[in-house]
Amino acid sequence: MSSKRRRADFRVGAPESVAAGRKAVEISTAFALGEMEPVRTSRVLGRLNQARGFDCPGCAWSEAEHRSATEFCENRAKVAAWGATTKTVDAAFFARHSVDDLQQRQDHWLEAQGSITSAMHLKPSATHYSPISWADALSELVLVPLDSTAAESNTPTSKSVVIRQCKQ
Prior knowledge:
single chain; mainly alpha; two-stranded antiparallel ribbon; two-stranded parallel ribbon; disordered C terminus; elongated; 168 residues
């Protein structure tokens, strides 16, 4: 058969009652179990798009009164699992991986490493991120006054950009 489908190969019919089915639920659950333990997996996926849970951002699922236990798509289940992962990245990870190394990695690899557990800072001309206390991070990086020259010329500096992002 040709790789191009002809119009006659498609059919129009009544909408399905489910979007995916058991296989999609199995795949989503297996992925989530790779990110967190079974109890946490059950809690996260069990609350996804539920009345007493949380909604997927940009999700097209209806907000019907009756919802099934699996009101989510595979991709959003993966996003929820990544957000609730128990995998962590600490200062030792950043000591092993330079900024150049991290920039060469695929997004999927970076995401799979886990959540950052402490504040990290890239000092000017440094090759690696280094730990910084939350107090120092807040006082040095966020709560610094705008550079007066930058404020007068309305030219953002790295410090002013951080301040603007934090005020939103």
